[in-house]
Amino acid sequence: MTKAAKMFRYWMIERERIRRQRSAGEPWPWTEDQILQTYRFCNVFRRDDKVTQHYLRWIKPLLTSMNRLDLVVFNTAMYRLFNRPETLDHIGLVNAYHGRRITMKLRGMQKRKDKIFTGAFMVTGKVPLEIMRRYAPRLQPPINKVDLVSVALYWLWNHRDEITSSLETRRLEKFVGALSKTPMFGRFLSYEVATDLTYHVMARAKDQDTWAHVGPGAIKGLNFYHGRQWDASFPQKEALPEMREILQGSGNWWPWPKRRLHLREIEHSLCEFCKYMKVLHGLGRPREKYKQPERRTET
């Protein structure tokens, strides 16, 4: 085992330990690791992140009616398209599609110069010309991002049954393939939606331990893990077996067996691990620093 492989195990355990100490109300700092103290890193389990916690509260009313799985899929996809709680609270859950109502709400936010999208997920601004002609024939250039998103949501609403039917296979890969055909949804964003579904309607997905969409950050994390040149190109099809191997051995070192790891946690953590290693070796720094919580004073 490489030294970096041991560091990866350390990073996952220490990051989860930090979350647990913070949740328990322990005083800062929750670690002696200067890098983890200084920079912001995502949790090992994306479910613990602030935005995902908001999503789970936001989608909950729809989960009481499983006969409308198509609404769960549509609203989850819409949530990740914006990925900003304030925007989704303003729009609200969609039970029947009224495109103009959504567009007007978004334009109102634009007019007030409110932030609509988050920078966490990069959304492509491209919508095929034939789809624009069919779903928004009156739009004239220049077309802003709100109008493009409105067209993408309209397309998604009209194809929601087809996309939802892919869940019958109980395979994340199939669902990602179906959703990624939606304008403005690439495989990365579609995988984020699929991950959200594993928290409820796809909790028993058959391929949670065998398949993941491997992003460029995870590839670099794997390169660090195996002692390769960190920024070398590496095919996704070869990355999956390496990630499966890490997952299969995790039972020997992951100290919280009741919180079981899946391949999503390995892929996600490899991406964050890459950021950690770049700081450690002076190759770069994460975009955000961690803001130290203010100390409470006794009165």
Query: Quick one: how many beta strands?
Result: 0
Low-confidence segments, ≥5 residues, pLDDT <50?
none
Give the overall shape, derived from the CA principal axes: globular
The number of distinct helices, counting runs of at least 4 residues, comes to: 14
Strand content: under 5%
**Radius of gyration from CA coordinates:** 21 Å
End-to-end distance, in Å?
53 Å
Order of helices and strands: HHHHHHHHHHHHHH
> What count of domains describes the coordinates?
2
> Quick check: average pLDDT?
91
| Secondary-structure-derived class | mainly alpha
Query: How helical, in percent, are the residues?
Result: 40-55%
Describe, in plain words, how this protein is organized in 3D.
It contains 14 helices and no strands. The chain is globular. The protein has 299 residues and is mainly α. Helix 6 packs antiparallel against helix 8. The chain has two domains: 3-38 and 209-280, no CATH class; 68-197, no CATH class. The mean pLDDT is 91.
Compile the SSE list and pairings.
Layout: H1 3-23, H2 34-38, H3 50-63, H4 69-82, H5 85-91, H6 99-111, H7 129-135, H8 145-158, H9 160-165, H10 172-179, H11 187-197, H12 216-226, H13 236-249, H14 263-280
